[in-house]
Design goal:
With about 350 residues, the protein is α/β, with parallel strands linked by helices. The protein has 3 domains: about 1-85 and about 300-330, Rossmann fold, CATH 3.40.50; about 90-205, NadA-like (Rossmann fold, 3-Layer(aba) Sandwich); about 210-290, NadA-like (Rossmann fold). Helices cover about 40% and strands about 15% of the residues. It has helices at about 1-15, 30-35, 40-50, 65-75, 95-110, 125-135, 145-155, 165-175, 215-225, 240-245, 250-260, 275-280, 305-315, 330-345; strands spanning about 20, 25, 40, 55-60, 80, 115-120, 140, 155-160, 180-185, 190, 200-205, 230-235, 245-250, 265-270, 285-290, 325. The strands form 4 sheets. It has a 6-stranded mixed beta sheet, sandwiched between helices. Strands 1-4-5-16 form a 4-stranded mixed beta sheet. A 4-stranded parallel beta sheet has the order 13-12-14-15, with helices on both faces. Helix 3 (about 40-50) packs parallel to helix 4 (about 65-75). Bound molecules: 1,3-dihydroxyacetonephosphate and iron/sulfur cluster. Iron/sulfur cluster binds near residues 63, 91, 122, 298 and 300. The site of iron/sulfur cluster has 12 residues, from loops. Keywords: 4Fe-4S, Cytoplasm, Iron, Iron-sulfur, Metal-binding, Pyridine nucleotide biosynthesis, Transferase. Its cofactor is [4Fe-4S] cluster. Belongs to the quinolinate synthase family. Type 3 subfamily. Catalyzes the condensation of iminoaspartate with dihydroxyacetone phosphate to form quinolinate. This is Quinolinate synthase.
Length: about 350
């Protein structure tokens, strides 16, 4: 039963002591996040990994790209474990190295040597390594505007991977007109729309399948039902949704906004379901809804469940750790360049 598994997990964590460290992303299920030594959004988890403990094993409760990042930022002999190898990210899967290497010469031909590649941390180690090798950096939703400003001190144009929405929303927040951003379609290997000498941002056509589910209709419907409602969304939502919302920001921003909200205020939140549910539980003084009543869940985040988590602990204790995420050395070195350019500025 769930209670037995919880007891077993707790016992094994005690037994392992400082040998194991457990970071967890805010989108994780309650049954797993209760065991996290630290909770965070993707920036905080990267920072925590970079400074990390001496723990021999890091059981990463999050998705594959986060575990890769933790491996890149920790020392050679530390082992990062992902409790379920199927915990990927559909957005990270929308940019692969083959597509990027195919696109890059075309972009160079159009714009010359004026482009810096920047990638959301929600990407594979290979994409991060490409950015690192070409002078670029990673960004998270917490520092995207700061990092884009930095990127423009390096080059005239940014190729932003893999989330077109975070790229467009951040560009717009910085005052870049929409017509100065062009979409790159990595499947068809061509531009979608007009580009010109004025183009500032090339947006890789990727998206988050969770955050894309929040719509203008959802916002209109809440505003009609409840005139006091305030709409709070993540910048992985579309440009139209972000524009129609009252507030938009990263996971950390959303949590802070809710923690500081006046008692009695009403909120509809456009982000992953587990986080919205937890905010609702933790803040009975507020009225909190999911912006989309269908409750948008990240299927891959949810693959990390109590049975997989317990299994990871068990295998460490047996001396046969499973699901170790190891980024090849060369790749890790280049990806670290991109991550470090972000971490020194965060
Ligand atoms: P942040 O943790 O940077 O807000 O990103 C949200 C997300 O989609 C993580 O996969
Ligand atoms: Fe990827 Fe979206 Fe899930 Fe985050 S919420 S892990 S971006 S699919």
């Amino acid at each position: 039963s769930q209670a037995d598994l919880e007891k077993k997990a707790k016992h094994m964590i005690d037994e392992l002591g400082s040998k194991v460290y457990i970071p967890g992303h805010h989108y994780q299920k309650d049954e797993v996040i209760q065991f996290a030594h630290d909770k965070g959004d993707s920036l905080q988890l990267a920072q925590i990994s970079a400074k990390n403990t001496a723990a021999e094993y890091i059981i990463f409760c999050g998705v594959h790209f986060m575990a890769e990042t933790a491996d890149i930022l920790t020392s050679e002999d530390q082992k990062v474990i992902l409790p379920d190898m199927r915990a990927g990210c559909s957005m990270a899967d929308m940019a692969n190295l083959h597509q990027l290497e195919r696109a890059w010469p075309i972009l160079q031909e159009t714009f010359g040597d004026t482009i810096i590649p920047m990638t959301y941390v929600n990407s594979t180690a290979e994409i991060k390594a490409f950015c690192g090798k070409h002078g670029g950096a990673t960004v998270t939703s917490s520092n995207a505007d700061k990092m884009m400003r930095w990127a423009f001190t390096q080059k005239k144009r940014i190729l932003f991977l893999p989330d077109q929405h975070l790229g467009r929303n951040t560009g717009a927040k910085m005052g870049i007109p929409l017509e100065d951003m062009v979409v790159w379609n990595p499947i068809q290997n061509k531009y979608e729309g007009e580009f010109s000498e004025e183009t500032k941002v090339i947006l890789w056509k990727g998206h988050c399948s969770v955050h894309e589910k929040f719509t203008i209709e959802n916002i209109t419907s809440w505003r009609e039902k409840d005139p006091e409602i305030q709409i709070l969304v993540h910048p992985e939502c579309s440009y139209e949704v972000v524009q129609a919302s009252d507030f938009a920001g990263s996971t950390q921003y959303i949590i802070k906004k809710i923690e500081e909200a006046p008692a009695g205020s009403h909120w509809a939140i456009g982000t992953e379901m587990n986080l919205v549910q937890r905010l609702k539980q933790d803040h009975p003084e507020l009225t909190i809804h999911s912006l989309n009543t269908m409750m948008c869940a990240c299927l891959t985040m949810n693959r990390i469940d109590l049975p997989h988590f317990t299994y990871s602990l068990e295998k460490i204790i047996e001396g046969d750790p499973q699901n170790i995420i190891k980024v090849p050395k060369d790749l890790a070195k280049d990806a670290k360049l991109a991550l470090d350019r972000m971490l020194v500025q965060s």
